[in-house]
Amino acid sequence: MKTIAVILSLLQVWLVVAMPTCRLEGHLVQLAHDLLQNLGENISVHCLPYNANMSFPESVLTGANKSSLQCHKALWVVSESLRGAAQIMEDSIPFGEGGEPWNKNTFSDFQNLQYQILDQGQCLTYKDTTGVLASYFTNMTTIIQQEDIAFCGWMALRRDLLRVLKSTLQKHDTCFTWRD
Ligand SMILES: *[C@@H]1O[C@H](CO)[C@@H](O)[C@H](O)[C@H]1NC(C)=O
Ligand SMILES: *[C@@H]1O[C@H](CO)[C@@H](O)[C@H](O)[C@H]1NC(C)=O
Ligand SMILES: *[C@@H]1O[C@H](CO)[C@@H](O)[C@H](O)[C@H]1NC(C)=O
Ligand SMILES: *[C@@H]1O[C@H](CO)[C@@H](O)[C@H](O)[C@H]1NC(C)=O
Hints:
Elements (H helix, E strand, L loop, with lengths): L1 H17 L7 H12 L32 H22 L12 H17 L11 H13 L5 H22 L9
Helix pairs in contact: 2-4, 2-6, 3-4, 3-5, 3-6, 5-6
Bound molecules: 2-acetamido-2-deoxy-beta-D-glucopyranose (4 copies).
GO molecular function, one term: cytokine activity
Protein name: Type I interferon c
Organism: Takifugu obscurus (Obscure pufferfish)
């Protein structure tokens, strides 16, 4: 029994030491943020009635404080948000209130970055016991599948991704790796 306990505690130390090596490159995330800022439009007043179905769960941006898991969690939220968005974007093409699709070249550059970041983030595992992020993406998918209000979903998705990327880059900048 004692041996098992020792092995388990060694494993725990190893996990904590090993986890911070799973990182995302800050400049890629910053670039994805900047491209997204140039894509699409700000949320329209016509989308107000759907607000309840399009509210990003703020709780995922807080929590997991002070522990060695903080960086891991923060980077996971970035990766998981981009993954959820990528899944929606695979099935539908984003467009604005007037029906105009997002700029093709900028969107394609954004998607390339998105996949690069997701590739780096593959090692970021975290058990979201609340399931709020999954629930958010289910809600967003439902909105975007409704042709007449899909633009609201794209506007909200853009708004929320910008917030996730910006706030994580600001609050947890040391969690990212930065090129010299
Ligand atoms: C869109 O929203 C951002 C952030 O709230 C703001 O800085 C920007 O000026 C807005 N753009 C327009 C065209 O309203
Ligand atoms: C995390 O820390 C911030 C300040 O550093 C504090 O305001 C917030 O309540 C903390 N959240 C949790 C879940 O402990
Ligand atoms: C999803 O939509 C339902 C119905 O409006 C809402 O109660 C729930 O809070 C939404 N989930 C999230 C994570 O926003
Ligand atoms: C909002 O969410 C609720 C509960 O999930 C659902 O019944 C309703 O149809 C949704 N509204 C829209 C506009 O998608």
